[in-house]
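Here is one chain, start to finish.
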Amino acid sequence: MNISALIMVFTWQGLLKLRRLADYPALSGYLKELFQIAGVRETTNFDYIKRHYYFSHTMINSTQIVPVWPIMELESAHGRENL
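Its structure:
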């Protein structure tokens, strides 16, 4: 699993509970930067990752309900050059 998928799983599972991912500028910028690297976008399927996570971990999600996730603009400017 690459770090971008891990960030998304943590977000979906509610481990980033206090705020939205967009409210963590360094983390969301890092995810955007990773997603914009050649080859990452083409080989990362967040829908598959999310469905797999929620259907294969029945101890965590016994209902196997897959939450709806807002559309993230991962192709927008990441702003990490300002860090």
